[in-house]
């Protein structure tokens, strides 16, 4: 069956997370976790579900961009798309008129991600095997045929990519079994959002420790003395053997990042995340160099807007942890390129997640990374945030601080129809109530 | 008078330039030069006009983004804005929810440019002097107060910026008089779009030479043999003493750029423009290094999305010509930062123009650069394209291949009401006719 796409629907779904300061950090003080949520309808009745994550205001702009891309999708069959997936990726990202709005960055690329995430979901569901998405990307030749190597061949050619993937076939089955049994290691960001009180922070740490968490991330960057107090508090709570990461969400300039983080070295953070502008490759390189003697790495990626930027972060030794995002890059296609480049440079991948749907999506990518690319768990872990999973038909399963491989068909970002209806902005019940307040 | 902004209107204006292949290049084969056109209404009756340039499809997305920013603008007085212009710039670019869509890149930043361009227009018109925009930015302290130095202080601090501007006060009056008399040197891109036939190309070159043009840019990158033929033809037409530039509009990967341009070295181009991805700082650095022995520089900037990227291009010696754009960056505010950084690195600025309204806008920035920053004309020239000027109330004036300083009040991008009405998409007469065809 060809599964011709006959319609593309997109909806503006927003959760009022800012009311309780969930997700608050030094630059995003009041996020309402939201999504541009895409549904592809096919002539076979099969559907594909995709989304891109946003923070509330402006989601309608992403919807507008998704609608602008719809004409390139509707009328195509799934078979047509996946038989030349690289070509389809380029069709969406290189339209002669629309690429001016990016290219491959910002709103138009977030929209591309939403659409392509839905295509990958559809593909996984349509496969004879009717399986979880991460199992769709296991054949080396198929994988490289999905990647647009434009602008990255100076670092990774198609031949090199194929070579990496073919070599990683060895031991694949064992790693898959291992994942099914143990799951993929996770860390939690749920304990220490910037807007939380010390009391809240202590309680959440204590609960998390009881649930088996050993890796914790703390938001910093608004006030140095406050950061020192909060980080000491958490380090004390979690003990010296647990892992602590800190995240500044782009708050600093280069020199300030170095001096501020140096002051926090006493709590022994594994990494400082997003110390400065996500565009500043050379700045991150300077920070990496300055912090290396303190044993602190630099992590970034959730706002790294495409493979060309990741390429340079790797070339410049500007990060020690690659934080891919399932909705910022051009879906699986572009993330595959980044995973392979990270492998080539031997830099561990520790995905960004949280928000709404990011955990559900990115678990597939990191499982793929372990099973089919890196075969390595050292210094690797996937972010986890304990919010909004209840709105998905196949929410992530966390056991003993590990992501358990998803078993349901698809890419795990189908939302409950009722959740979408209630949270649709501005006409859903939740927002009608908020607006009335 | 405070000039309180009481309304912001934005319109989708498109010109069907693709019908005659104007503007065609290796990556944008069928552009319809377009704009998101902003009008600010104030309680005093004074208006501000701004725009951002687009290529047709997707302009509606930029409109949507402008509307999302409108709430941050309406209700503010001009006085309130310009008394803390840095703060207002940051208000638009750092909204806690909307910055996720950038930050400072793509659709949301194009929208910021359109809005801020209108504010600058309004400001110039409102000044007691009621003068051309470039005259609004002459006081050093006022200038630095408009710039957001976030993320660039490792290269340029506020103090250094002020120092540069104060030193350049010397000779300012002579340079202004010189500009009023001679104008600013320009080059033409109108002769050699990729879609033009050889016959058309010869005719246009011949006409341009007669009008006094001595600097010419040719589009390349689609087919090497074709490029060699076209470049030889033009070099023959313009003679050895005229200046020739070539422009690939991001067509190549790094290695390909080096080999392709090396083949074109025989026609002695001054620069190769946009050889690869606009995001690839390290790639441009590699290309610069490889082409330096051939005497060919690298130029880029029309899709360089913010000051953080320009900072790195300068730090990495990745360009030899800085091509600022009046609509890609956050208006005058962000361009001021780039002009000052370029001065610090002693790299000449040669603005991108053309499209619709870009010449009208950018002439102000380059006049400012000469009069108040660089005081230097060596290796400097501003792009000119001979299209669509007739739609503006104060179109650019070119004399003997020089931009003559604009004399009308404002930032020169007010369009004729009739032009806007006829070209509004999709309901204007021009588009109704096209759609009926």
Automatic annotation (TrEMBL), chains A, B:
PROSITE patterns with a match to the protein in the record: MR_MLE_2
InterPro entries: Enolase-like_C_sf, Enolase-like_N, Enolase_C-like, L-fuconate_dehydratase, Mandel_Rmase/mucon_lact_enz_CS, Mandelate_racemase_C, Mandelate_racemase_N_dom, RHMD-like
Transmembrane segments: none
UniProt keywords, alphabetically: Lyase, Magnesium, Metal-binding
Highest taxon in the source lineage: Eukaryota
Gene3D superfamilies: Enolase-like C-terminal domain, Enolase-like, N-terminal domain
Reactions catalysed, as given in the entry: L-fuconate = 2-dehydro-3-deoxy-L-fuconate + H2O
Gene Ontology BP terms: amino acid catabolic process; carbohydrate catabolic process
GO molecular function per UniProt: L-fuconate dehydratase activity; magnesium ion binding
Domain Mandelate racemase/muconate lactonizing enzyme C-terminal span(s) in chain numbering: 198-294
Record-given protein name: Mitochondrial enolase superfamily member 1
Species the sequence originates in: Haplochromis burtoni (Burton's mouthbrooder)
């Amino acid at each position: 069956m060809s599964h011709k796409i006959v319609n593309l629907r997109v909806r503006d779904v927003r959760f009022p997370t800012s009311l309780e300061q969930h997700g608050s950090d030094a630059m995003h003080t009041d996020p309402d976790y939201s999504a541009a949520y895409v549904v592809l309808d096919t002539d076979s009745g099969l559907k594909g579900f995709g989304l891109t994550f946003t923070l509330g205001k402006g989601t309608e702009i992403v919807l507008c961009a998704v609608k602008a891309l719809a004409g390139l999708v509707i009328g195509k069959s799934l078979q047509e798309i996946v038989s030349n997936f690289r070509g389809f990726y380029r069709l969406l990202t290189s339209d002669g008129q629309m690429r001016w709005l990016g290219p491959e960055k910002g709103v138009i690329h977030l929209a591309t991600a939403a659409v392509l995430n839905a295509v990958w979901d559809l593909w996984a569901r349509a496969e004879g095997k009717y399986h979880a998405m991460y199992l769709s990307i296991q054949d080396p030749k198929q994988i490289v045929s999905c990647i647009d190597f434009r602008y990255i061949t100076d670092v990774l050619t198609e031949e090199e990519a194929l070579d990496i993937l073919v070599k990683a076939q060895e031991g694949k089955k064992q790693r898959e079994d291992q994942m099914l049994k143990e799951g993929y290691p996770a860390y939690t960001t749920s304990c220490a959002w910037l807007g939380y009180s010390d009391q809240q922070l202590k309680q959440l740490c204590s609960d998390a420790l009881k649930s088996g968490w050993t890796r914790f991330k703390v938001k910093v960057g608004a006030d140095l003395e406050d950061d020192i107090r909060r980080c000491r508090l958490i380090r004390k709570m979690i003990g010296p053997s647990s892992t602590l990461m800190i995240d500044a969400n782009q708050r600093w300039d280069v020199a300030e990042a170095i001096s501020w983080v140096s002051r926090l070295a006493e709590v022994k953070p594994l990494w400082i995340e997003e110390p400065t502008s996500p565009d500043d490759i050379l700045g991150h390189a300077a920070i990496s160099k300055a912090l290396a003697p303190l044993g602190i790495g630099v992590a970034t990626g959730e706002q790294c807007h495409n493979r060309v930027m990741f390429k340079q972060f790797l070339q410049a030794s500007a990060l020690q942890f690659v934080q891919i995002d399932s909705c910022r890059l051009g879906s699986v296609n572009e993330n595959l390129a980044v995973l392979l480049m990270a492998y080539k440079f031997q830099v561990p991948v520790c995905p960004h997640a949280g928000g709404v749907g990011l955990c559900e999506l990115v678990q597939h990518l990191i499982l793929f990374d372990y099973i089919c690319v890196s075969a390595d768990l050292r210094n690797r872990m996937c972010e986890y945030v304990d919010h909004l999973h209840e709105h998905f038909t196949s929410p992530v399963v966390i056991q003993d601080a590990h992501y358990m491989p998803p078993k349901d068909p698809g890419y795990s970002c189908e939302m409950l129809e009722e959740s979408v209806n209630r949270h649709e902005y501005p006409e859903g019940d939740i927002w009608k109530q908020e607006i009335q307040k």
